[in-house]
Fold:
Amino acid sequence: SRLGRTDAVDINAPDAPHGFTLQQREAVASWMHRWLLGKEKLIREVNPLPDSFNDEQLREWNQPDWTQDQLQCSPAGQVLLMEGERSVFQINANNAAALRESRTPKWKALSEAEKRALIRETTGSPGEETLSNPRPNRVGSVTRQGYVIEKLTLEVEPGLVLPALAFVPDHPAGTATLYLHGSSKTADAAPGGPIEALVKAGQVVLAAELRGIGETETGHGKNEFGKGRFGPDNLDILTAYLMGKSYVGMRTGDARRWVRVLAAFEAKGGKPASLHLVAIGEAAIPALHAAALDAGRFESVSIRGMLPDWESLVGVGETHDQAVNIVHGVLRHYDLPDLVPLAGGGDRVTISQPISPLGTPIP
Structure:
């Protein structure tokens, strides 16, 4: 009715078993006759149709008029079994290889500033003007032996608040680490864990979350195909894609805001003199982007549990929880290894424990 075409839409809901039954086929054929042939025709497969009938009769009327061989449009029933045919995965892999050949000289010809501008444009990462002076809120604290944990929140967009834990040693040494884990801010925060080891060495550690991770992860228990293959937040990821955004770009903005929070963090002795970055799992790709865009911010960048490159996703038939790492059209311009020089190169950037498209460790 909103389109003014109520005559073009109707509902056919027969009292029949699940399937594409006789009544539905008749309705579809009549509709197609009207709108594709421009003719009104009442189509009946069984004429006259009895006033009443049972499901068994309906099933008898649903028996096909054609054999399986007659219905096949290829000799063996599958196009891929024909000589010379290729799957979509094979076509995409070939396209990705061609893109690599075409983008490499273009990428090399760009200045570092131009590369960073292209990264921001491709991922949809927010510009500098929206990142300055983030103001976290302190909402509580916990004392442990030798350090204090401050509970922080940061509103990165109107209505979107992300949490973090700031581990502040009693005797800071002047260095600080932004710790981004792909599971939650508490993943490595237990006593005796990796974060405490850094704090015991005198570092201020900010264990922060990116959107869709930890407390803001989509909460639904529906056991659906997409949840396992594309990730628990696949519906949000697809919605962002339809809006022209990528989770990588938005999470990169989150990471860069947390960088600025840490750089301005006041501990005993003042602000940190040097910053380090640790990113694990789902937080790795946004963190690498943040390091590439924030040139010279970090003395060291440690990335663990990341895909070696995006191209490895393209030709495989199955992936697990990788939709969140996708940036539409990115292989026209760059791949993940291209970010390492911008993030400080091999002297500062360490990438370890790479994973496959299925999320399994690569030996």
Remarks:
- Residues 116 and 293 are 6 Å apart (CA to CA).
- The first helix runs from residue 22 to 36.
- Residues 6-63 form one domain.
